[in-house]
Amino acid sequence: MRPTAHAPLRRRPRLALCLGVPLLLAAAGCGASSTSHAGSGSGTITIGMSLPLSGAVADNSKSGYQGYQLWADQLNAHGGLLGRKVKLVVLDDGFTQSTAISDYNKLIGQQHVDLLLGTFSSFLNLPVAEVAERNKYVYIEPSGGADSIFARNFNYLFFAQPATTQNLPDQFVAQIAALPAAQRPRTAAFVTQDDPNTSEATKLFKDQLAKLGVKSVYDSTYAPDTSNFDAIANAIKQAAPDLVVQGALAEDGVSLIRSFQKVGFTPKTLFQTNSPSDTSYPDAVGTRNTEGVLTALAYSPDAPTPGNAAFVSAYKAKYSTVPSDDAANSYTAGQVLAAAVTAVGRLDQSAIADWLHKNSVSTIVGPLSWDAAGKPKGSLLLAQWQNGKLQIVAPAAEATSKQIEWAKPGWSQ
Hints:
alpha/beta, globular, 14 helices
């Protein structure tokens, strides 16, 4: 999901993040012992997942976990699923692929959970989706839109966002294309974390902007555990691009901005994936420094989609903050799973997958439907920080601000 960087977003003690998890693990034996069940049955329905509750991205994965918890609490308050209470069985993968694979194998083969929900990032979901497919478990992932995941044409995989990485540049590139030629950026720097999602997205930006005549003057990839971006920031400064596109996941976006401040470089236009949508982003970089930063969104707390206002209100009441993308994505994944199980009327993995391939689900991010490979058929939003608020600037029908600021102000120390 997200790497460690120089300035953490929402740094909290690890113990606080993991409170309650042992109780969930202790209940894991309550699950049934097969992946297909007839009838409504009795007892608790166990839903297994492995999340990065410790390690490099623990701070940012917390809101995703909270989205799952809120969904389960609300579901149980309304009678549960198929008339049975649900219990989340949560393991900690520490943002390590081998641990995530082991965890899902354990959830399926040893703890015999009834259902699965996904972990975070393409980095983890790519190998875990294969585990779910091999065991014929429906696998609804809250994040992880890299096209390489869907290229495998898994039957049991579904992505709980409106669109994938392939669509991420669409709105931004369309806005660049709409500018008069003299106002378009002439040069761009591309820098990305080594993650299937961000790497693919950054390459798409580069290729599509090149068709508009934007020349690449810098292109590099950094390791997920990179914490010092000074050398990268200085190299970008020397290249002097009009536009910087960063494939960031969270804290790496903050760290690059801090390094830009160190070396004294402000890009005319800055687009970052993921990081700017984190609720702690303004505190981490300084509210004035968010001004003009662009990003793509799968979700906005201000979106007028059915149930979204109620979700935002409930999340704020429970956690005293506005839900992040991660929280909304997890909640959405839960909505998708509950809708399919309810429609099928039994815990039958094949029937649940077949139903999802044929139907649309109403969620807080709007109606979701999928192609044969589990890719959603919707589109993303283009957003920009303006006057301390993340505004939707495209498409026009969903915009909360009618204009895009193309000239980024200088950094405030």
